[in-house]
Amino acid sequence: MNPSADKLLLFEKVLILKSLRLFSETPETILSELAPLMEETEYQADTVIFKEADIGDCMYIIYKGQVKIHKKQVTLAVLTEKEVFGELSLLDSETRSASATCVTDCFLFKIDQEPFYELLEARPEIARGFIKILCQRLRQQNEKSVAAANA
Q1: What is the pTM (predicted TM-score) of this model?
Q2: Closest CA to 7 of 113, 114, 107, 119
Q3: How many CB atoms are closer than 10 A to CB 89?
Q4: Nearest one of 62, 65, 67, 64 to 109, comparing CA atoms
Q5: Is the per-residue pLDDT at 5 higher than 80?
Q6: Which among 130, 121, 139 has a CA at the least distance from the CA of 91?
Q7: DSSP per-residue string spanning 18-80
Q8: Which of 10, 29, 83, 99 lies 20 to 30 A from 38 at CA?
Q9: Would you call 2 helix, strand, or coil by DSSP?
Q10: DSSP-derived pairing of the beta strands 48-50 and 74-79
Q11: How far, in Å, CA of 120 to CA of 130, rounded?
C-alpha cells in the first residue's frame, strides 16, 4: 500500500485525535471510528474559514498553521497546532459566535455535524471529552469576566 503523501493514514489521524485535550481520555478503538470523519482541508493565509453569525455545522482541528478567532477587529484567540475550534457547532446548529481567519497557510481537519451525531449515538464516551473541554472553557470565561469586572 502506497498512500498519497498528502493523505494521512487512519492510525495517524487517531494519534492526532488522541493528542487533543478534547479526546485525550477517549480509547483509541473509539477514535478509530471518528478518524474517518476527518476531512482534510487546506487554506491560504488570510482566508476566512467562517464568519460570525454563519450557521455552524462542523468543527475544525488545526494540524498545521495558525487560526485567529475574532469578533470584528477584536482578536479573541490565536490557535495553533492540535487545537480545535467551532466545536460547539458539532453539538448544535446555532450561529457562529465569532469569525475564524487563517493567520498562516493552514492544514485543517473538518468534522461535520451529521456523521458526528451518528457516532455519538453509538459511542456516548466521545461526549465526555466535549463536556470536559466545554466546562474548562466556561470556567476560564468566568474567570476573565470576574477579572474584567474587578479591573
Answers
A1: 0.82
A2: 107
A3: 24
A4: 62
A5: no
A6: 130
A7: HHSGGGTTS-HHHHHHHGGG-EEEEE-TT-EEE-TTSBP-EEEEEEES-EEEEETTEEEEEE-
A8: 99
A9: coil
A10: unpaired
A11: 11
Q: Which of 3-7, 12-16, 86-90, 128-132 has the highest mean pLDDT?
A: 12-16
The residues near 42 (Cβ < 8 Å, ≥ 6 apart) are 105, 106, 107, 108
Closest CA to 15 of 49, 61, 80, 58: 61
- Give the residue, 45 or 4, on which the prediction is more confident: 45
Nearest to 76 by CA among 110, 58, 101: 101
The enclosing H or E element of 108 equals strand 106-112
pLDDT tens digits, 50-104: 999 999 999 999 999 999 999 999 999 999 999 999 988 888 878 999 999 999 9
Q: What is the pLDDT of residues 13-31, one digit of tens each?
A: 999 999 988 788 788 888 8
Q: Compute the mean pLDDT over every residue in the chain, rounded to the nearest whole number.
A: 87
Q: Are 55 and 97 spatial neighbours (Cβ–Cβ below 8 Å)?
A: no
Residue 81: φ, ψ to 5°: -50, 140
